[in-house]
UniProtKB/TrEMBL annotation:
Organism from which the protein derives: Sphingoaurantiacus capsulatus
Gene Ontology molecular function terms on file: ATP binding
Name this polypeptide is given: ABC transporter ATP-binding protein
Keywords: ATP-binding, Nucleotide-binding, Transport
Coiled coil regions in record: none
Highest taxon above the source species: Bacteria
Keyword Nucleotide-binding tagged: yes
UniProt xrefs under InterPro entries: AAA+_ATPase, ABC_transporter-like_ATP-bd, ABC_transporter-like_CS, ABC_transporter_ATP-binding, P-loop_NTPase
ABC transporter domain boundaries: 6-235
Amino acid sequence: MSEPAISIRGLEKVYGNGKVALHGIDLDIPRGSMFGLLGPNGAGKSTTINILAGLVNKTAGSARVWGFDIDANPRNAKASIGIVPQEIVFDAFFTPFEVLELQAGLYGVPKAQRRTMDILRAVRLEDKANAYARTLSGGMKRRLLVAKALVHNPPILVLDEPTAGVDIELRQQLWAYVRELHSYGTTVVLTTHYLEEAEALCDRIAIINHGRVVANDETRTLLATAQEKVVVVTIDRDLDLAPDHLGVGKVELRGTRQLAITYDKRERQAGAVLHALTEAGLGIVDVSTQEADLEDVFLSLTRSVAA
Ligand SMILES: Nc1ncnc2c1ncn2[C@@H]1O[C@H](COP(=O)(O)OP(=O)(O)OP(=O)(O)O)[C@@H](O)[C@H]1O
């Protein structure tokens, strides 16, 4: 197997004020993956990313980006990663074209190899190429940030909370574009608070809490670890109250004919729940089940770890 796109070992960060942001993180992000870095506010996501980007100095540990050690080979490590930061910062008096050309200059991309107009076209800003950055809408600025991260054609693109404060339509556009990049082989890492977003987009997810990795798995495996399952049963008669004597989990009456039963799937299967209902003399008309979603996994993991 090829070396991971990003490989982190024992990464620690203590800020100047004594705040321990990372307690020793181990993390491998496979090449070609769409990887979600999830965690509540202050978990250490930005610190991790900023260390990889060379913007924050680590206290201990090591990291390799596309095989390049960030200490031994910082230039190559930096050239292998494009970071889309959380905050929008541009010089208002540069045009998108100039912003990208300047960035290309910073990364030492020779003029002949620059793809400024191609990138602007890809993020649908070609008609704004020569407008001042200050005249762009919030959404356009976001797209310009993505464009900026791509000028040196990095194999890894990291998006730090890219859709915070972005409207739904733009979010969809942004994700469509990120998916496209991913389909062409770019390794994509995104940090997000939006659990549904990570669930929908990422093939692997690591959850960080209080500077520690508390989960790191394929999205579907992570979802399968959620223990609660709900079976919703339509019964053959009207009820006034949820029956409380079934002994199969929490029973809730929805309307007069539907029962939602939440049970722990380690303890019993849906069949046993249905059996208990028929034993209680209730006829079953229809059945559906709901798996727990990522939010349940996230909450159970981030609740169980002390600060
Ligand atoms: N420059 C700094 N000086 C001191 N403490 C810091 C600094 N930057 C971050 N921290 C602290 O380190 C911890 C981790 O912060 P970090 O920004 O990495 O979290 P995060 O998971 O990215 O959260 P968010 O999503 O809110 O950005 C927090 O407790 C934060 O207050």
